[in-house]
């Protein structure tokens, strides 16, 4: 087996050489992940905000369900989506199984409860602060919801980041519904698992380095936005 340092050197060589196979895998990973996070946020942000801002029958139960679904096992999600999209399943005619579309659906189901539950907590805390002000001004339900979302926008960036981190690191569900097909559904996490089992540690480690760089870059962008907002507020 190659030494750690030779594997590490080979991994960085692949990264700096912009290996075409590496770029293809990274590109598909980002397309699938960003699309899944986008749809998860389109559902999870308003849902979580509504549960956090309004009082209605079943609200506590819904909040408990969202919190519980944050720990949803990815392999279970993958299995359910597989059954739904299989030829004998109700969504079989869509022919989405073993396509990037199936992977997007699985990741969206995993990420959406995380976004919704964290959004609920953020919005609920802000709503307590502004509840009397909203009541005195007679703010309508929609305006109230939009105001809370806007006021919490920087905290919700962190919520979105949490969803992105969960999606980009997913392997179990996407492996089940995507099949890890070369040039079709092979993403970074599934490639790392496959290449490690084959002993191709350089490619696996190169993708691991890319994953870390993506995580650090996204975190740095969010922190920079929050810092600029704080400076603008005190300017």
User: Quick one: CATH superfamily?
Assistant: MetI-like
Total strands: the figure is: 0
Average pLDDT works out at 85
Write the CATH architecture name: Orthogonal Bundle
How much strand?
Answer: under 5%
Overall shape: it is: globular
Q: Give the SSE string.
A: HHHHHHHHHH
Radius of gyration: 21 Å
CATH topology call? MetI-like fold
Q: Which class of secondary structure composition applies to the elements?
A: mainly alpha
Number of domains: 1
Low-confidence stretches: none
Helix proportion of residues, in percent?
over 70%
Q: What would you note in describing this structure?
A:
With 235 residues, the protein is mostly helical. It has a single domain, classed as MetI-like (MetI-like fold), CATH 1.10.3720. The protein has helices spanning 4-16, 20-53, 59-69, 74-85, 100-137, 141-151, 153-168, 172-178, 188-198, 201-234. Helix 2 (20-53) packs parallel to helix 5 and helix 2 (20-53) crosses helix 7. The model has no long low-confidence stretch (mean pLDDT 85). Residues 26-222 form the ABC transmembrane type-1 domain. Pfam families: BPD_transp_1 (PF00528). Keywords: Membrane, Transmembrane, Transmembrane helix, Transport. It is found in: Cell membrane. Its main location: membrane.
């Amino acid at each position: 087996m190659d030494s750690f340092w030779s594997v590490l050197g080979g991994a960085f060589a692949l990264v700096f050489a912009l290996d075409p196979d590496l770029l293809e895998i990274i590109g598909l990973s980002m397309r699938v992940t960003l699309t899944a996070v986008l749809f998860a946020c389109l559902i999870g942000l308003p849902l979580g905000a509504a549960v956090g801002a309004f009082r209605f029958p079943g609200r506590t139960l819904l909040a408990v369900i969202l919190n519980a679904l944050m720990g949803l096992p990815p392999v279970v999600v993958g299995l359910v989506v597989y059954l739904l999209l299989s030829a004998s399943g109700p969504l079989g005619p869509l022919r989405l199984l073993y396509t990037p579309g199936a992977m997007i659906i699985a990741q969206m189901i995993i990420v959406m409860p995380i976004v919704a539950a964290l959004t609920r907590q953020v919005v609920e805390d802000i709503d307590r602060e502004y509840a009397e002000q909203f009541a005195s001004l007679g703010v309508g339900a929609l305006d109230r919801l939009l105001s809370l979302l806007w006021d919490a926008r920087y905290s919700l960036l962190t919520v979105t980041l949490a969803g992105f981190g969960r999606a980009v690191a997913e392997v179990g569900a996407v492996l089940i519904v995507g099949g890890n097909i070369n040039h079709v559904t092979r993403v970074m996490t599934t490639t790392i698992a496959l290449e490690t089992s084959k002993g191709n540690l350089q490619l696996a480690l190169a993708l691991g380095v890319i994953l870390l760089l993506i995580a650090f870059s996204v975190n740095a962008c969010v922190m920079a936005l929050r810092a600029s907002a704080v400076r603008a507020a005190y300017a």
